[in-house]
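STRUCTURE REQUEST FORM
Protein name: UDP-N-acetylmuramoyl-L-alanyl-D-glutamate--2,6-diaminopimelate ligase
Source organism: Brachybacterium ginsengisoli
Requested output: structure tokens
Priority: standard
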Amino acid sequence: MTTPTHSSDEPSLEPARPRRAHGASAIELARALGANAPADDVQLSGVTLDSRAVEPGDLWCALPGANAHGAQFASQAAGLGAAMALTDPAGRERCEAAGLPVLEVQDPRAATAAAAAVIQGRPAERLATVGITGTNGKTSITTAITRTLLELGVPAGMIGTSGTSYRDADGGDHAIGTVRTTPEAPELHGLLARMVEDRVEVVSMEVSSHAMVLHRADGVVFDVACFTNLTQDHLDFHGTMEAYYEAKRELFTPEHARAGIVCVDDDWGRRLAREARIPVITYATRPGVEADHRAGEHRPEGFGSVFEVHGPQGTRTLRAALPGRHYVANTLAADLLLETIGRSGEEVVDALGEAGTVPGRMESVADAPVRGIVDYSHTPDALEQALTTLRGLPDSGRLLVVMGAGGDRDRGKRPRMGEVAARLADVVIVTDDNPRSEDPAEIRREVLSGIPEGTNAQVHDVDGRGEGIALAAYLADVSDTILVAGKGAETGQQIGGIVQPFDDRLRLRDALRVAQTARGGADHMDEGR
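Status: completed
Returned output:
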């Protein structure tokens, strides 16, 4: 299967803008936003939030922030050729002082999304759009859908944690660097416009809870939206699980989606299925849970698994390319989403069965004599699923996990991460994730605080992620499995405001090779998939 990659051999990163602007007049835009028409009717060819990224003819959006107002950068935006500023009453004076005509609105963040859709020609209306939300599974499902479509020859793209990539109608692959799971609205509509320009037919994207609260995905009415699950994460932003849920639920309204696919394995999903304001189809993987589509027991096949799905039209068989119940759920979700946008049949099922591997998601970097796995699991639930899956693999010895928790993020989940690791692994190496601005040792202490006294696990507190991975490789014996959890396919580590090069996959592979060489067994090391 050939798909867009992220190697050094791929096309260089492209801008998140179409090559030819659709554009809109200031009066046309004011009418769409319900704002007062400006005195000067200027032509707007683009839109951006970043004063440093302004191009001549852009609408520059100056938003209020937590610590300062974006309008303080009005002179920079004007100097780069902004044609107009969109801002609130608090930002108007500074923008006008910089010589910019102003379109004043009460909620500039929401208006930014609407403006971006208008200026880019409402590109979402000319694509089949799939949106996936949930704590876990978003990247796996978007990747599976996109790779399946590409295998079938359908020009398709995806937007999410791993960036943006797509294949155009002529077979060319494109990669666009994006920072957030769901890009800011100007960037998002620019990406969609570029895909329309290149005759892409389907785009699948991750829709984060932050995006819903901050209006990043406004202006897109998804043909179908999917909810995977809800477990503790991002409470540093939302405050409570109820607020976190409400942000997810907002996607399942007529303003944002036409139809929904909802996993009802947890209470949040069952509640969403009742409260959604659009038609929904439900699916489940847990025994005894009622749903429109139910996955039966899965049996191992290679590194993946095969399972039957019982639905309104009878029973069908699907294959998950990776092991574990959560990948059964992801595969079933992808199948239902594809069917909803009109892609079904034996060819689709066959392609989907090979399409579920995602860099950094249960990625095998070594098979023998020690199995090495890297996974993005950075929440208690995701870590529990990963460890449970690996514990169930046949012919496995001990299970070693290298894990930690990110700094400047939800602190409440740290002790729970430690508890899960010690309950399910034989050896727990607590080390540094992305400490960001926090003291790494303090983060580790909080993770370790969740490990009960008298645990049967062998526990190590290791300063330095590279050292933690090396220790795991040193301690592992033949047939043991090492899981390096938390960062997945990330290629950098954020420490004290600096991103340093760091790839768990390379570090684990190298550490296993060094350990094997030290034991005289280098010739027996088989690299993974």
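Reviewer notes: The two ends are 14 Å apart (CA to CA). Residues 401 and 483 are 5 Å apart (CA to CA).
Form closed.
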